[in-house]
Amino acid sequence: MGADLTATETARKRYDRIAPLYDMMEGFAEVLNHGKWRRLQWSKVEGTDILEVGVGTGKNFPWYPADARVSAIDFSKRMLERARAKSDKDKVKVRLRQMDVQNLEFGDDSFDTVVASFVFCSVPDPVLGLHEIRRVCRPGGKVILLEHVLSSNRVLARLMNLANPLAVRMMGANINRRTADNVARSGLTIQKVTDLGAGIFKLIEARKTATPS
Ligand SMILES: C[S@@+](CC[C@H](N)C(=O)[O-])C[C@H]1O[C@@H](n2cnc3c(N)ncnc32)[C@H](O)[C@@H]1O
Question: What distance in angstroms lies between residue 118's CA and the mean position of ligand 1's atoms?
Fold first, then answer.
């Protein structure tokens, strides 16, 4: 089954609206934690053909490996415009394209590593998106996600579920996703889930193995 087009269009428009404010909204978190988590994530990249999904305004550009061929996609035109301006200014080698992760226009087995940071909280059908990532990843290739997820603490999880509709409206992000479960459901094989903070921020490392998990 394909993506829910109405939900996808609503989410895309939300990011188009947020784009001018995104770097400012995330500024404090970036200095506090996100910067060091991004560095950790990109230190785990393997191979030379890399896909970044949900590139946003290009916050991961500083961590791209120097010798890599990076393609980066986002479904939001306005976020991509910002990424393009940043890549022109900083002379970042990247092929930027507007694309929905739920319907990737790349061939099977195209990339050594697929990376996404803070993306699967907002993809309307995360399992479909992860399934597409699995398809374009080479056999044995790596998938590395930096995500915030639903807390394993029951009280906190309850509050997060209650606050979720507001979070989606304001930031376009679901705060109650079980992304590691979604990764496993997509057929990728989880290798490691590292808790980066508060039981909410996770680095998820997975592989495309011969037999889906
Ligand atoms: C919270 S922002 C994160 C941006 C960037 N990865 C970062 O770490 O700053 C989420 C990004 O994912 C993109 N996104 C969400 N759903 C998507 C989809 N279905 N296909 C492609 N991009 C998507 C949004 O447009 C947005 O740029």
Answer: 7
